Amino acid sequence: MGEFITFGNMTQMRILILNYEYPPLGGEAGVITKDIATGLAKRNHKITVISTWYEGEKEDHAENSLRIIRLKCKRKEVDKSNPREMLSWIFATKKYLKKHLLTNKYDICFANFALPGGEVAYSMKLMFGLPYVVMSHGPDIPWIMPKQMMWYHAFTYQWIRKTCLQSERNYVQSNEMKNNLDAFLGKSFNDKNKIIYNAWDRSIFKPDYSKLSKKFTVLFPGRLMQKKDPMSFLKSINIIHSQIPDIKAHIIGNGKFQKKMEKFVKINNLTEIVIFKPWISKEEMLDEYQTASVTVLPSFNESMSMTTLEALSCGQYLITTKVGNNENLIQLGINGDFIEKENPKDIAEKLLDFYKSKFLKNYRINAEDLNKYDDIYKWDNIIDTYEKDLMDIIVKNEKN
C-alpha cells in the first residue's frame, strides 16, 4: 500500500482499525480497542478507527495521530448489539470505505472480531489489496460457548473461517482461545494465530485498603447476560446471606437479565442486601474495587477479562472460573480461587471460606504479589508487541 512514512529512527505506520463497538458503546472489546489505538497513536503512528455512531458522539473526530469515525447504523443501545445491527454496520462501513480508501492510504487494517470486523477487512483486501489482521475477543470463533452459540456459529462457520484464513495474523488473548482457533483453522495455519495478552493500568487501578468497607461486600462487575452468569452469583448470595451479618452484594452492569434478577431479589427478600448499579465511570468503578471485600466473576467464557485485571490490580481477592487467562493470573489462596461453572453452591462455599479465613482476619494481598505481573501485563509492553508484529507484517508484504 505504498512506502512507509519515516521520521528520525522511527517508522510511522498507517493503521485502519475496525470495531463496531468503541467507547462509550459496548464493553471490554471496545475498551481494549481504544487502549490499543491510543497506545499506537501516542507513538506517532497514524490511526483511524471506524466504529458506530451513538447519540451525543461526534461523527468524525481527530486528535493528534488518532481519528475516530463513527458511522450511523441501526444500533439502538449502548451496551449490546444484535446481528441485524451488526449487519447494518458491515454494509455502512463497506460503503464508506469504498470511497475513503480511494484517497486515504493505509499499510494495514486491524479488524476486531472475525465478524463483523473481519468481513469488512476481507472485502477491502479484495478491492484494494489492503492486508489485515483479526483480533478475536472470545465467542466470535467457533466453538467457544457451544451451548449458548451453537446455531449462530453453525450459520456463520464458513464466513468466519474465510476471514481468519485470509488474514495475515489472528490475535487472541489466552491459551484457551489459541487452542480453539488452532483446531478451527487446522494445523497448517497455527503459525498465524498469536497470543498477545490484555493489560492493566496500575496508574489508575491500584489498592487503597483505607477505603475497604467494614461490611462484607461482594462485588459482581459485568454485563447482566448469559455469558457472565450473574444468576449463579445472585443464587449464591441467597444461599449465604443468613450466615453472614451485614453482607452486601453490589452488581455493576446492565443487560437483559436485570428484570429477572430484580424479581429474584424481591421474591427472596434480598432488597436490603443486593444493590444494582448501571455502568459507571472509571473513577466510580475504582471506588467499588477499593471498597469491596471480594469480587466474583462466574463467566462461562472470556477472552482475557479486563474486569479480572482491574480487580486484581486493585488488590481484590477474585473468585472466578477457569476461563481466559485466569489460570495464569490466580495464585490459589493468595489472590483468588476457582469455582465451577453454573454452580451457585460452589460460589457460596468459596465466599463463606473467604469470609471466615480471610475477611474476619483482615487479610491483605502483599504488594509483591501485586507487582510480580507488572512487566507481563503493562500496556506499554503489550503495545510494544503489537507495534513490532504489525510492522513485521507490513515489511513482509512490502517485500512481496
What's the layout of helices and strands?
Layout: E1 5-7, E2 10-12, E3 14-18, H1 28-42, E4 46-52, E5 60-63, E6 66-71, H2 83-103, E7 108-112, H3 113-128, E8 132-135, H4 146-165, E9 169-172, H5 175-185, E10 193-195, E11 217-221, H6 230-240, E12 248-252, H7 258-267, E13 274-277, H8 282-291, E14 294-297, H9 306-313, E15 318-320, H10 326-329, E16 336-338, H11 344-357, H12 367-371, H13 374-377, H14 379-399
Parallel strand pairs: 3-4, 3-7, 4-6, 7-8, 8-9, 9-10, 11-12, 11-14, 12-13, 14-15, 15-16
Antiparallel strand pairs: 1-2, 5-6
Helix pairs in contact: 1-14, 2-3, 3-4, 6-11
Describe this structure in words.
The strands form three sheets. This protein has an eight-stranded mixed β-sheet, with helices on both faces. Helix 2 (83-103) packs parallel to helix 3 (113-128) and helix 3 runs parallel beside helix 4 (146-165). The protein has helices at residues 28-42, 83-103, 113-128, 146-165, 175-185, 230-240, 258-267, 282-291, 306-313, 326-329, 344-357, 367-371, 374-377, 379-399; strands at 5-7, 10-12, 14-18, 46-52, 60-63, 66-71, 108-112, 132-135, 169-172, 193-195, 217-221, 248-252, 274-277, 294-297, 318-320, 336-338. It folds into two domains: 5-199 and 379-399, Rossmann fold (3-Layer(aba) Sandwich), CATH 3.40.50.2000; 209-376, 3-Layer(aba) Sandwich (Rossmann fold). The protein is an alpha/beta fold and 400 residues long. The relative contact order is 0.11. The longest helix has 21 residues, at 83-103. The chain has 14 helices and 16 strands.
